[in-house]
Amino acid sequence: MKQRKSELKTGEVVSTKAGKLKCKTIIHAVGPVWNNGRDQEMDYLSRAVRNCLADLEEKSYTSIAIPAISTGIYGIPIEEGTNCTVTAIKEYLDTHSDSKIKHICLIDIRKEVIRAFRHHLETVFGISKSRVADVKPRLSGLLVVVDFSFFSVLSVFMEPSSVTPRTNVASGVNPGIKINLMIDSISNASVDVIVNSTNKELQLNNGSISKYILFAAGSEIQDECNQKYPQGISTSTIAITKGYNLNCENVFHLVLPKWNENSSDSKFEEYLLNKPVNEGVHSKGKQFVC
Fold first, then answer.
1. pLDDT > 70: what percent of the chain?
2. What's the average model confidence in pLDDT over 248-257?
3. How confident is the model at residue 117 (pLDDT cuts 50, 70, 90)?
4. Cα(42)–Cα(168) distance, rounded to whole angstroms?
5. How far apart are CA 203 and CA 225, in angstroms?
6. Nearest to residue 166, comparing CAs of 148, 156, 187, 180?
7. In the prediction, which pLDDT does 244 show?
8. How far apart are CA 102 and CA 136, in angstroms?
9. CA torsion angle 176 181 185 190 (round to 10)
10. Nearest to 208 by CA among 220, 226, 196, 219
11. Is the pLDDT of residue 192 over 80?
12. SS3 string of the chain?
């Protein structure tokens, strides 16, 4: 990226290596900044999407994950932006009958964006609701996928799942307790309690786990943290809030002690297992996701 001698213009793209991401390349697209439609924003957005697909094919790749470009801090309304993206994909495929693209994953962490993508796939491609996750338009071999899993950015073929794991990697059963190790997005879990590892200030937008919980639960969960715990929490307490848009009754926000390789594992385990009891939370019969 630093080797470029000129700046990209709106609608243009450039590709780089993927680093540690599980993909072959990253295509960086310059999306337009919203100005109430006065600056041909939709034309530039459409151009950016088409250039992504063209760059993909130049490299002889066949799959791509595309977010809702410019619908975040750049301010393009979600409905207009997602419709433009889906329409641009269809226009590209309609004008490239020899396209080798096989999988397109439209992805975002915001539920309203996924709903908008789903709606516009139905209208633009003429897809029924029952087939929205496995779309086969008239172009032979094409599969358009709307993926509802946050972690699907790591694999464009990953499909959403419920709390039941796709692969039960490991499970152990003790009297009255069942433990499952799952590979899934935490927002898909339908349990009594979700455990969130966060910071002492309870600013949920900081930290990879708490940031996603904030996105999935909604801003009300941060409001409750601010109101109930204005001074934050320490490693000796747990903050308890409602689940809001998550499929759980409560979220337990905790601050883990800093890792010290000289500390005994037993102390760490004792902290995790006993804190709910110390906080007066009756855990018997409850389901937890950590």
1. 66
2. 88
3. confident
4. 44
5. 8
6. 180
7. 93
8. 10
9. -10
10. 196
11. yes
12. CCCCCCCCCCCCEEEECCCCCCCCCEEEECCCCCCCCCCCHHHHHHHHHHHHHHHHHHCCCCEEEECCCCCCCCCCCHHHHHHHHHHHHHHHHHHCCCCCCCEEEECCCCHHHHHHHHHHHHHHCCCCHHHCCCECCCCCCCEEEECCCHHHHHCCCCCCCCCCCCCCCEEEEECCEEEEECCCCHHHCCCCEEEEECCCCCCCCCCHHHHHHHHHHCHHHHHHHHHHCCCCCCCCCEEEEECCCCCCCEEEEECCCCCCCCCCHHHHHHHHHHHHHHCCCCCCCCCEEC
Residue whose entry in the numeric block shows the structure tokens 């080798």: 100
Per-residue tokens: 201: 């200030």
Q: Please report where in the chains the tokens 């709606």 appear, as a residue.
A: 119
Structure-block tokens of residue 234: 């320490």
Q: Provide the pLDDT confidence category of residue 277 given band limits of 50, 70 and 90.
A: very low
Quote the tokens at residue 193.
């309690």
Question: Residue 161 corresponds to which amino acid?
Answer: S
Tokens for 267?
A: 């102390």
